[in-house]
Amino acid sequence: DILAEEDEQDRVPLQKLKLLGESEELRALLQNPHLRQMLLTMDQAQDKSSLMRKFMQEPLFVEFADCCLSIVEPPEKENVLPE
After folding, report:
1. Which InterPro entries match (predicted)?
2. Packing angle, helices 59-72 and 14-22, rounded to 10
3. How many CB atoms lie within 10 A of CB 41?
């Protein structure tokens, strides 16, 4: 499977993906049976893109997505005083 250069920048390095497994906040979210069912449905869906659009309207799914993104791509700290 050969990736084009633009595809490569959309990939998350394995080291950062491993951070997801270490997050207590993410584990707590995954305790929710409704979220777990949504993720299972997404995994088994034929048309993942339309289902993703639907799920992105669900606050619980958005919270999950935001949590994952904040782990693999933490926001840059603003207004931090140099040491």
Report:
1. ZNHIT3_C
2. 120
3. 13
Rounded Cα distance between 11 and 1, Å, is: 14
pLDDT digits (tens, 9 = 90+) for 53-68: 999 999 999 999 999 9
Which tens digit of pLDDT belongs to each residue from 22-45? 999 999 999 999 999 999 999 999
Q: Which residues contact 64 (CB under 8 A, 6 or more apart)?
A: 26, 29, 30, 35, 39
- What pTM value is reported for the model? 0.75
> If you count DSSP H runs as helices and E runs as strands, how many of each does the chain have, helices first?
6, 0
Amino acid at 82: P
How far are the Cα atoms of 52, 53, 54, 68 from residue 17, in angstroms, in the given order? 20, 23, 25, 9
